[in-house]
Design a protein that fits this description.
Layout: E1 2-7, H1 15-28, E2 33-37, H2 43-50, E3 57-60, H3 66-75, E4 80-84, H4 91-99, E5 102-105, H5 111-119
Parallel strand pairs: 1-4, 1-5, 2-3, 2-4
């Protein structure tokens, strides 16, 4: 299973929207796709409740950790999983990026937003 974390230190840059778009397109392409909503705002969970389609799968963490949710999806033969990370500097972002095959760092085309990417990088 491929796992992709969508991360940003800033809110409102489109992490949830991109997770939805990529996951839906993967499903259209015939892949079993899922989104893990790791954000306390639960944008993806709320979106999932508004829809009638069970595809892509929407995963709420509840008491599970991100690695446990990824492992569960892998065991259920999911092809691709997107992790919608929370904004700000939360430890769960690091966990999501570490468990993912790669991360997409989303930002706005502004100096202040780009500076925040470097601020979050480990030395």
């Amino acid at each position: 299973m491929h796992t992709i974390a969508l991360a940003a230190r800033k809110g409102g840059v489109g992490k949830s929207s991109l997770a939805r778009a990529l996951s839906v397109q993967a499903a259209i392409d015939g892949m079993r796709s899922a989104i893990i909503d790791a954000d306390d705002q639960q944008t993806i969970i709320k979106w999932g409740k508004r829809r009638s389609s069970p595809v892509p799968a929407v995963v709420e963490l509840r008491t599970r950790t991100i690695p446990q949710a990824v492992r569960d999806l892998s065991q259920r033969a999911c092809d691709i999983c997107f992790i919608d990370c929370p904004p700000h500097n939360q430890p769960s972002i690091n966990v999501a990026v570490e468990v993912a095959d790669f991360a997409i760092v989303i930002t706005e085309p502004a100096a202040e937003s780009i500076e925040q990417i470097a601020a979050g990088c480990k030395s």
